[in-house]
Amino acid sequence: MENINEILSLDSDENTRHFSKGDTLQREGENCSKAFFVKKGLLRSYTIDDKGKEHIFMFAPEGWVIADIESQEFNQPAKLFIDCVEESEVIILDRSLLIRSELNIDQLKNNVNLLSRRVAVLQRRVIMLMSASAKDRYELFLETYPKIPNRVPQRMIASYLGITPQALSTIRGEITRKNKTIL
Amino acid sequence: MENINEILSLDSDENTRHFSKGDTLQREGENCSKAFFVKKGLLRSYTIDDKGKEHIFMFAPEGWVIADIESQEFNQPAKLFIDCVEESEVIILDRSLLIRSELNIDQLKNNVNLLSRRVAVLQRRVIMLMSASAKDRYELFLETYPKIPNRVPQRMIASYLGITPQALSTIRGEITRKNKTIL
DNA sequence: CCTATGCATTCATGTAGATTAACAAATCAC
DNA sequence: GTGATTTGTTAATCTACATGAATGCATAGG
Does residue A151 lie within 7 Å of nucleic acid chain C, judged by its CB? Predict the structure, then answer.
């Protein structure tokens, strides 16, 4: 849900808040009627499975919106944790932002496009998870999010890719070793 | 994208077409500006990877809409094949159906809700693919789509779950064996 | 009706990635 | 600055699932 300036303008006067690295904005089990626009910094959303293992669902750098749409849509308590990977400035939006009554036709169409884009990104992610090897997934991640890797610890990238930090480390080792032999 | 009666009413006069089991409505590489509303029957969308292996992205039974939103959104040729699992009646819709100019505010809000629902379903699928074992994924599939399993060959269910037909067969064997010992 | 092709199941073997553990480097707390 | 905790790397072992092949059934087409 990138480039959401349209919607944002409606809320820029509302409460912008400042958070430190590691602060949690939403916990599993809470009621979650909020969405978070990232003005500055980097947030992430993730689940923790029954074995206590984290699975990162998405990263949200500057200009992105992050929320637990599944739980909101089905009126369930939150399944996702949302917290800060970096010190961040966040505008807290209401869940209704996408269909609030003040919106005009053009703004609604814009929202339809934003959601279509989000569906498209998720479609790509599902197909990737089903058909690509760990190495391919890592390389696709680097292409898709060229600016994020150096801001995020390896273990979180591994978690986003659905593999262990050890496996990612091995893959990175292979890639740099291959590049050395080429150079 | 279930229960799309709102949108449908706009197009019910357009060309409804009849297809046989196995007929292909869209191929990889084609320009894909269409979406398909399933009036009767069952469609599926899938990719074929570089090793020639099918990966089913979704099933669309009666009342659902199916389309390659990713490719449409990024203006690329289709990544997905779409074909008929059963004999089907399909209304062919234009890609612009979600933001076409005749739509009023309520219809647009309805579209926002439909897309939110789709995002929610995909969120669930991504989390499942990342964190659940093959057996858990199969059981979740049975819960989520209780009506589909008996209409779809095992190998397609396996493909949807991201495992081989052999692995699914083993899992099914385990489940029925366990149920027998309980009874 | 009979043959051919596809489908589900089972088993034997292979492999990507998980798990466990050990260690060095970086970061944090005080 | 110093000890403690977190992070990234490497290596040895383990396991879930893939791959490949054989077999019995079903469905389709002549």
Answer: no
